[in-house]
Design a protein that fits this description.
Distance between the termini: 36 Å
Strand content: under 5%
Helix content: over 70%
Shape: globular
Mean pLDDT: 87
Radius of gyration: 22 Å
């Protein structure tokens, strides 16, 4: 068909691909959740297991996100402001969660913190439960969300340069004053963007958390695990109702991400 310009053909193929991979699955989730009305959705929202899953998801996110924010800030400052032997290796190690399958990460945590693991044996002797409990699930979440803050802040710090911080130091400012009055105002949008990505991944993580959780409904199931368990138990409408909640959280994240991108200049890159 020579009358069809290549660019329109590529656009049509891209739209068809997006529709098949992204749009149709999302629409099907909402259809399955609401095609019998709001009754099942509202019933799921009141279900004790669902509320327990939401509560556990929020608890893990509230622990993992602040810890990774502090670590990400420290790592970003060290990597952006210093040149030292092993810097490239440090960056590569920081990116490990991007390259390792979450399931493999979960298995590594099981081997490490199991009763006979290198670290787990000490906790077992102290009668502290790590696996199949909140500590193990939090460790898994921290692992998979580790690089996001650092990876967003490092380019902002490098673009900002050390001149303003050095000028403040020459004028007599202390380290914490330099951070609060010079560094933080310049990196705030990049930092918020990294925190947003970290929180989104923490609330939606399934693979690593599932391996170390035991997937017990009402006890060790986060929201993504609740969806899987309900689907396996043939409670499909409840599973899709919970999936709708996750999809709405993702939509809120996308809106906030779009707003932050306008401030951090991602559109211009």
């Amino acid at each position: 068909m020579p009358w069809i310009k290549p660019k329109y053909l590529l656009i049509a193929l891209a739209l068809a691909y997006l529709g098949l991979i992204l749009v149709i699955p999302v629409v099907s989730v909402f259809y399955e959740a609401f095609h019998n009305g709001l009754g099942q959705f509202l019933t799921t929202m009141k279900d004790d297991n669902f509320l327990a899953a939401v509560r556990l998801t929020l608890i893990i996110a509230l622990i993992a996100v602040p810890l990774n924010t502090v670590f990400g800030l420290c790592a970003a400052w060290v990597l952006a402001r210093n040149q030292f032997p092993g810097r490239a290796l440090f960056l590569s190690v920081l990116d490990l969660p991007f390259s390792i399958s979450p399931v493999v990460a979960g298995l590594m945590i099981v081997l490490l913190y199991g009763q006979k693991g290198w670290i787990g044996s000490f906790f077992h002797e102290a009668d502290i439960k790590i696996l199949f409990a909140i500590p193990g699930m939090t460790i898994a979440t921290i692992f998979v969300t580790l690089p996001f803050v650092a990876r967003e802040v490092i380019p902002v710090l490098e673009e900002m340069g050390p001149e303003q911080e050095e000028a403040a130091r020459i004028l007599g400012a202390k380290d914490w004053q330099i951070f609060w009055r010079v560094t933080l105002p310049n990196i705030r949008w990049g930092l918020l963007y990294g925190v947003l990505l970290t929180n989104a991944r923490a609330m939606g993580e399934f693979g690593a958390v599932s391996v170390v959780s035991g997937s017990i409904l009402g006890q060790t199931s986060t929201l993504p695990i609740f969806v899987e368990q309900e689907y396996k138990n043939y409670q499909t409408e409840a599973a899709f109702s919970a999936a709708v909640v996750l999809a709405l959280l993702a939509a809120v994240t996308l809106v906030l991400k779009e707003i932050l991108e306008r401030y951090t200049g991602h559109h211009s890159k």
